[in-house]
Amino acid sequence: MSTKFEIHDDASAPEAAQSSLAEAKKSLGFIPSLYGVLAENPAALEGYQTLAGIFGTSGLTPLEQQVVTIAASVENECHFCVAAHSAIAAGQKLDSDVINAIRNNEAIADPKLEALRTFTKKTVIERGFVSDADVDSFIDAGYDRAAVLAVILGISLKVISNYTNHVAETPVNEAFQPFAWTPNGHEVAAA
Predict the structure, then answer these.
(1) Cβ–Cβ under 8 Å, residues 134 and 142
(2) All structural domains of the chain
């Protein structure tokens, strides 16, 4: 599939998206390709960035947030988001064994984090139609109903980015290349 989405920068983007891209460039030193694609529709970029900020206040720890975002991205086979969130996790000095287990679709040694990974994965696979037993198992692992909703919030965030990256075939930025990930042997582009 080749849809030819432009990857905007802070000069080529529609005016309403330019300041968001300029801010990303200032804070990160580059504009993530995903942001450049989303900038085609400034509301999509704003929605993604706003939801990302809200997810950060969901009550999940930074490591738990990455468990959700990477597990959802692995399940959705999103090469860009697995690489980007792995880089974010490394930058935050989060447990690399946990991140690598998720990237490899393997069990996490910590039972509580494994329950989070498993619940996230089931929620993605079942499109939200998880069983009462799935919810009870997640809660029995040490989470609460607020965390159930935080997982759904994180998955919602990843639907925006994962689906955008599938449609646009978003190339992985050089900064994320050390964490490149290929789903099921599919070819993916590099920036």
Answers:
(1) no
(2) 15-174 (1.20.1290.10)
What would the pLDDT profile of 56-95 be if each residue is shown by its tens digit?
Answer: 999 999 999 999 999 999 999 999 999 999 999 999 999 9
* Tokens coding 130: 């998880």
Nearest alpha-carbon partner for 52 in 22, 1, 88: 88
> How far apart, in whole angstroms, are the C-alpha atoms of residue 86 and residue 176?
8
Q: Cα–Cα distance between 71 and 102 in angstroms, integer?
A: 6
User: pTM for the full model?
Assistant: 0.93
Q: What DSSP state is assigned to residue 39?
A: T
CA gap 31, 79 in Å, rounded: 17
| CA neighbours closer than 13 Å in the CB half-sphere of residue 60 | 30
Q: Is residue 74 classed as helix, strand or coil in its secondary structure?
A: helix
Angle at CA of residue 175, ends 117 and 105, nearest 5°? 20
